[in-house]
Design goal:
By secondary structure, the protein is mainly β. The chain is built from no helices and eleven strands.
Length: 123
């Protein structure tokens, strides 16, 4: 059974830092892209950061230079370090895993999702 379990959410003041983590189990880990997404009620889910199997990363423009995605292949964990947070970063954050395409790129859709962890940034 595939499980992605997020942790580390909470409340933080603007300008502060927070780290959210995701523990994966029940699938092979290798051959997958991992990503962090976020969604607020009434709005579409948006990608925050993606890390490919080879370690290459991509970030949403809104978080570039402030957030860092990383993974530990041995532990099957995914982290998102959030620095210089802003009130607009307030959201539920979701961890996801998707098959790497035959061309080595990350997919447009992800196969497995966690239940999310709430991050609230106060001004």
């Amino acid at each position: 059974q595939v499980q992605l379990v997020e942790s580390g959410g909470g409340s933080v003041q603007a300008g502060g830092s927070l780290r959210v983590s995701c523990a994966a189990s029940g699938y092979t880990w290798s051959g997958y892209c991992m990503g962090w997404f976020r969604q607020v009620p009434g709005k579409a889910r948006e990608v925050v950061a993606i890390i490919n199997e080879d370690g290459s990363t991509n970030y949403a423009d809104s978080v570039k230079g402030r957030f860092t995605i990383s993974k530990d292949n041995a532990k099957k964990t995914l982290d998102l370090q959030m620095d210089s947070v802003k009130p607009e970063d307030t959201s539920a954050y979701y961890c996801a895993a998707g098959h790497v395409s035959p061309y080595g790129s990350c997919p447009p859709r992800y196969n497995y999702w966690g239940r999310g962890t709430q991050v609230t940034v106060s001004s």
